[in-house]
Every structure is written in C-alpha cells, then in structure tokens.
Amino acid sequence: MVNAIYSSREGQSFLETESQALSVLDADASPCSFEAAKRAKGLGFASAVSGTLVLTNTVLGGSGLLGMPAAVAKAGYAFGLLLMVLFASCSAFGCHLLQCSARRIGQAPCSFYTVSNAVAPQWTWLIDSAVMIKCFGVATSYLIIVGDLAPPALSFFGLRQLHRWEVILFAFGVAGSLTCCKNLSGLRFTAAGSVVIVAWTIVLIVLFVFQPSEAFEPCGHPGHLEDLPCGGGEVKAVDLSEPLALGKALPVFIFGFTCQQNIFSVCNEVRNTTPQRMNGIITGAYCISFVALSSAAIFGYLTFGPQLKSDVLKDYPQNAVVAFTSLLYSMLAVFSYPLQIHPSRASALALMNLVRPSEGAHRWAAVTLLELVGSLLIAITVMDLGKILGVVGATGSTMVSYILPGIVYVQTFRDFHLRRSLALGQLILGCIIMPVCLVLLFL
C-alpha cells in the first residue's frame, strides 16, 4: 500500500506523497501486524537460539577474523579493544534500527530492499550499490586468502613450491565455474563448516601463546620456549606512534562486525519477534562475536607484536597443524566465493536496469565476466589482505552498517525521540567515516 502511494498521480509533489505514505504506515502498523504477515507466508518458526547463531556466523565467517589482529596491532591491545567495543556497539545498534523498522512496516518476508522501498524508495539504489561493493570485495578477499595460505601449506605436504598466482588461478577456476550455476543450495554446508574452522583457528591462535608442545612454538624454533612476541617487538596497551596506519586500519574494525544483511532473515524466520526477543538475539550474537574476534586479535598481537601481517595465519611457522588449518581456510574461501558473487551480480544488474532496462542474457553474461575477471586481477595484483578489507570496510560495510540503517529508521519513525536522534547521528557518522577512511587508505 505504501508503494502504491509513492507511485500516485502525476504532478503531486514528493513531500506530499511522502507524507501520505507515512500516514498510511502510522495508521496500518501495529505490534502484531508483522507476525500476522509472517504467518500468512508460512514464516516464523525458528528459535531465538538459531537466530543468534545466524548473526554470529555472519560476523565470524569469512576474512574479518584473519585481518582483525593486524588492525588491533596498529592501536595497541587496550585501545584496540576499545575500538572493537565502539564499532561492535555501533554495528549492533544498526541491526537494532533495522529490526525496529522491519517490524513497524509489517511486510513479510522483509529484506533490505523491501524495507527501504517502503519508506525511502529514492534510496534503493544505495542498497544495491552497497551490496555490490561489499560482496564483490569479500569475494576478492577470499581469492587473496587462498593466495596467502595455500602455497606454503601445499609445499609442506610435499607439492612443489607453487607461485601465488598459480594457486589463485586454480582456485578461481573452481570458484568461478560455480558462480555460473543458477542454484547454490548445495554450498550451504559452508555456513556450518565456517563456524568449525573459525572456532578451531581461534583455538590455534591461543595455543600458540601458551605453547603446550613443540607443535605450537610460534617463532620458528622448535624445542624451546621463547619470550613473546616473536622478533622482540614491543606489545603496547596504547600505540599512537603511527596515526596514519591506525586510520587505515579503522575500516577493518567496521568490516569485522558487519552482519546487517542477515538481520532481516532473522526477523523472518524467528517466531514471536518482540523487541525484547530481537534485542536479546542481537546482543547475544555480538557478545559471542566480540569474544571470538577479540581473542584472536589480542592473542595474535601478543604472539607477533606490531610486526603482524594483514593475514594472521601467514605469520605462523609451517607445521602439520598450521598447514592443515590453512588448507581448510582456503577450501572454505573457494566455496564461499560464489555465495558473494551471486548477490553482487544481482545488485549490479539492478543498478544497470535503473539506467537502461534490459532483460537480455547478454547483460547477465557481461556482468558475470566483468566481476569474475575484476576480482581475479585484483586478487593477483593486491598482495595485502588488509587493503581490500579496508576498502570494503570504508565503502560497502559503512553503508550497510551505518548509513542505510540510519536512513531507514529516520524515514520510518518521524516523531522526535532519543533513538531517532541516535539513528541520525549514526547516519552522519557513516557519511563522515566513508570519505575520510577512503582518503586515508590511498595516502
């Protein structure tokens, strides 16, 4: 009904049309309307625990875990933890704003697009832009991870020393072919696999600090324990000696806590999505994710100090445990690649259709080719995982975590109240973070 009002008779001013739409929204929405809409579509049967696990997996699964230790190393362990708390809180607040808007609008199933289109259709292009950039960047980071981790691991297990580009090209051949499939349901196992691999990687990082056996000696000298960090670097609580490097690391903190795209899935699938229940799901997911990411970041920093690489697993000496973990992460990255290219391609096509509508298969093929070749070339030429995480964090993640939740909430709730002011503040913060961080990244 709201969409119909937005496309009402010609000649009516935008503000008048918008006012009518919001009046309908205020009149029709009720606390029970969203649950009723879900029941009508056969949705809303999952538990709160499953919703928490979905959000947790979204935060932890992927490349953020590998890049967070290097980001914390630029700030020091105490200041790094403070930044993690700050960005995790802002990201969690973004999820809170989105679920409030989704329940108020009352459409099911809800998504970023349906919610934005109901209250701010003029900004739907921003959603497609954010999804396209973020998913393309994450897919590219997966190829970089394979190039970082697979060559030394394969060499340890007896294969010849492969060049980085050879491994990336092989991984691309497998992952790229999967992106041409129309149905990716067979790859859903990667969600469960990512949880196991991420959990083991965190345990591995912790074990290398306590060194229970020779297999977990991090400095490359089996047979005796060494004082950490390796290489004699200094571990600091607060490190402001390189402010430019710290500024470049800030988008990684944003990237590491981005999961807003799945808050709508939780709203759709979890039964009885009351404010208290949804806030509990968000709080639980972010607390678990914070403990996991901070453990990896702090213990990685304690192990290698300020010399940490942008991909933490690259720092560890090659032995059977590390090599096996590296191969597991590489396999997960390969099969996760098409799960990112698919939504990126869909958003790119939507943006192109806004400019020039077309339904030809040639456009689908052309966009697929451009995205695949683009991600391959970037992965081969960019050697630093932190650079791609920084660009994605400053653009796509900032839009998804800060700008879009602020726009949606401010447009959905027009009456003045504290939460609306905070939402507006988060929107303004995102508009500041994006250009500033992009400038810092390219200095």
UniProtKB/TrEMBL annotation:
Keywords, A to Z, come to:
Amino-acid transport, Membrane, Transmembrane, Transmembrane helix, Transport, Vacuole
Please tell me whether the keyword Transcription is annotated for this protein.
no
Q: What is this protein called?
A: Amino acid transporter transmembrane domain-containing protein
Species the sequence originates in: Durusdinium trenchii
> What is the membrane topology listed in the Swiss-Prot or TrEMBL record?
Multi-pass membrane protein
For this chain, the family text in UniProt reads: Belongs to the amino acid/polyamine transporter 2 family.
Q: Where is the Amino acid transporter transmembrane domain?
A: 46-439
Q: Where are the transmembrane segments?
A: 43-65, 77-98, 191-210, 281-304, 316-339, 360-382, 388-410, 422-442
Matching Pfam families: Aa_trans (PF01490)
Localization recorded for this chain is:
Vacuole membrane
Q: Which PANTHER family match?
A: AMINO ACID TRANSPORTER, VACUOLAR AMINO ACID TRANSPORTER 5-RELATED
